[in-house]
Amino acid sequence: MSAILPPSERIWWKQSIDKLEFTWIAIALVWSLVMFAMMIWWHIYGNQNLANETYKTTKEMFAAKAQAVVDQYTVRTGTEAEKGFPVVAPPAGSDIYLIGRLWDWWPIYELEKDKTYKLHLSAMDYMHGFSLQPQNINIQVHPNYDHVIKITPNQSGTYSIVCNEYCGIGHHTMVGRLYVK
Amino acid sequence: MATTYRICPRSGLQFDTQAEKLMRFHAVAGVLSLLVGGIMALGVILTRWPAVKLLEADTFYMVLTAHGIDMLIFWIIFFEMAVLIFASSTLLRCRLATPKLAWAASVLMAIGAIMTNVAIFQGESSVMFTSYVPMMAQPHFYLGLILFAVGALIICFIFLGTLVVAKAEKTYEGSIPLVTFGALTACIIAIFTIAGGAIILIPTLLWSLGYIREIDSLMYRVVWWAMGHSSQQINVAAHVAIWYAIAAIVFGAKPMSEKVSRSAYFLYILFLQLACAHHLLSDPGLGSEWKIVNTSYFMYFAVLASMIHGMTVPGAIEQAQRLKGYNKGLFEWLRKAPWGNPAFSSMFLSLVGFGFLGGISGVMMGAEQLNMLIHNTIYVPGHFHATVVIGTTLAFMGLTYFLVPVLFKREVLFPGFAKIQPYLFGLAMYVVALVMMGAGTLGVSRRHWDMAFAGAPMAYEWPGAAYLMMGLTGIFSCIAIVGGGGWILQIVLSILFGKKLEDGEMRSTPIPLTLPAPTPGGAAHPPATPGTLVLALIFLTAFILYYFVNWKYLSSLWGLA
User: Fold this and answer.
1) Model's pTM, two decimal places?
2) For residue B35, which of B494, B484, B389, B493 has the smallest C-alpha distance?
């Protein structure tokens, strides 16, 4: 009969499966396993993986670390269009701390192309969303977690960091900047 | 409570009077939620449409919160409660277990829904559907959701109780129907979802009342998404059950294989709940191993299940049509399908859109590394408008065309509009989902008042194509709202003013279901379904291409390790 009635064959689990249906199940299973393997493969051979390095932190501790980097490597004070934020150029390989807070990304970093930096992300209040444009790399930023990602910019230019996690009425004004030379 | 039974003269279905009233209650409550959510949709879209930008920021975020909650929680879950009652009491031809408790639970759900809506429209609870901590809403925002969840949980158990009643009172023979099996899957997932996910709202309520000092934002996301995403899997199980039901009702289609379809549902029960990881792939503090195992529903076994249903539903229709003689070529069975019957056209548009747009995009963005490309962009709502609006809502709308005469005993008014409504709403939503995903691929944020970043000194300028796609999102969303609003109007007017149809025979005892004896010769060799396999292979080709295009895109980004 039909799907809204009990199966007409009482012993339905012993009925054979249609050939084409079985073919499709086999194809779909193989494709599922390929997709599963793809994520693991990319961890081994791909260059874009989020690290698993994360620390519990506090807002004060993270802010202090960011301040220390800013104190040491600030090259100039930003213009008015840069909100007067410090523009910081740490040497390649450094730990750099980016603060997400209502409604800024602070400070502005100046990085070198093809050099690797350890980027630390954390939020001071609500959650924020690190959205690097026009690269389109998007990472969730939590308060009290220090998320460490090794980044290697492969193109020079001016990048924007848009906040893409809703964080209140001024959310749309939360845009930061990052330079790659 | 003594009850009576009505035999519907149009469908032959038997309704327990108490169950019937409850179904009407939930269907109406669902449609009212859809109405509120739909009006909010208009506010959302007319603000995100860059050329219009209707609302102020605070109103926009309030309206967006209401839109998400009224649509994703209240509309869908109210309707699903009606589906649970239908799939148990009606399909198994038995009395509903504990109708008084069911009424109490239903009233609780309604109180919860109203309370949360009141909290949102008071303006102090614009925390979005997800209500992420540490952003705090008013206590009654959380309390309303908790009451609603408790009510829904009780009805889930009443559904299970009704299955027990049917078995004990022998109202059916053999195994429960496939559609009931699908509803059972939805019910099991719903219980998991509420008990394992919605429970986070209790400490959150205590936190908003000041009894708890802090809630960890990461823990909140991990637990909350066990509801947030898993509850979408209730929808999948429910709307797949409705696909099977409509195929059965319209074509008399029999499942290609009970064994395969039920096993696929069983895979849902085993693996769909892992989906909370989909939202945490770009979060700190969770290992890649955890992310990969969970985001893939453990080796994509739940995706496999959906790919199976996606083939067996049209396959069952193809078999039924071929048995009726539509045998020419690969696709005569499909060409000669009743495209003017809104129950069928809704169901078919739902199936194709869910697979091609919702399914493929969902798997792409659910790959651990690829998620970085779209996390929190408007790609995400693009994806879930394909799954929840095209997949779930359209299927529910299609079923409602069948329910109005059967359950509400009224003729559907404006049959001409009914013919085009699924296309108007469904195809417009196809375009909306596509252009939202397009804008998201370019990086445009979701939940964002102004893509021009008014007032931000370091504003970023999106490419022109992003503006174009957000404009198209606006235009086609308005068309979809006409289609959806038209549907609400049509259904409400039909229920109120449609021509009354006869009730049918009333009885004090149920008539058990008797099945005709199985036909040994005919059932053994159903026709082959080459047309469906071709459709499935087209789907797979699109899937593979799109999947690898995104890996190619990812490989061009900055090195991340």
Assistant:
1) 0.96
2) B484
Does residue B2 surpass a pLDDT of 80? no
Q: Contact at 8 Å (CB) between B136 and B63?
A: no
Residue B164 has pLDDT above 90, yes or no: yes
SS3 sequence of B48-98:
HCCCCCCCCHHHHHHHHHHHHHHHHHHHHHHHHHHHHHHHHHHCCCCCCCC
User: What chain A residue is nearest to B255 in terms of C-alpha separation?
Assistant: A3
Above 60 in pLDDT, residue B521?
no
Per the structure block, which two tokens stand in for B212?
């708890």
Short-list B273, B128, B279, CA closest to B194? B273
pLDDT > 90 fraction of chain B, expressed in percent and rounded: 91
Relative to beta strand B559-560, strand A145-152 is: antiparallel
Tell me the per-residue pLDDT of B101-148, one tens digit each, with 9 for 90 and over: 999 999 999 999 999 999 999 999 999 999 999 999 999 999 999 999
Q: Which of B78, B77, B102 is nearest to B19 (CA)?
A: B102
Q: How many Cα atoms are found within 13 Å in the side-chain-facing hemisphere of B75?
A: 24
Distance between CA atoms of residues B135 and B224, nearest Å: 14
Cβ distance of B560 and A149 shorter than 8 Å: yes
How far away is chain A from the Cα of B112, in angstroms, using its nearest Cα? 25
Place of tokens 């009990």: A6
Is the Cβ–Cβ distance between A81 and B458 less than 8 Å?
Answer: yes
Does the beta-carbon distance from A17 to B260 stay under 8 Å? Answer: yes
pLDDT at B523: 52
Residue A29 to residue B123: CA distance in whole angstroms: 48
CB B66 within 8 A of CB B127: no
| Cα dist from B92 to A71, B82, B84, B167, whole Å | 73, 15, 12, 9
pLDDT attached to residue A15 = 86
Structure tokens given for B21: 């009233």
Residue numbers in A near B516 (CB within 8 A): 1, 8
Helical (H) or strand (E) element with A143: none
Quick one: angle between helices B258-271 and B297-323, nearest 10?
A: 150
Q: What amino acid occupies position B499?
A: K
Whether B1 and B18 have beta carbons less than 8 Å apart is answered as yes
Q: If contacts are CB pairs under 8 Å, which of residues 27-86 in chain B contact chain A?
A: 57-58, 61
B-chain residues near A93 (CB < 8 A):
none
Give the integer Cα–Cα distance in Å for B240 and A178.
Answer: 47
- Asked whether the beta carbons of B166 and B184 are under 8 A apart, the reply is no
Strand partners, B460: none
Residue B520: pLDDT above 60?
A: no
Q: For the segment A17-69, what is each residue's pLDDT rounded down to a tens digit?
A: 989 999 999 999 999 999 999 999 999 999 999 989 999 999 999 999 999 99
**Spatial CB neighbours of B316, under 8 Å, sequence gap ≥ 6:** A3, B244, B247, B251, B253, B254, B255, B256
The answer to whether the CB of B527 falls within 8 A of the CB of B322 is yes
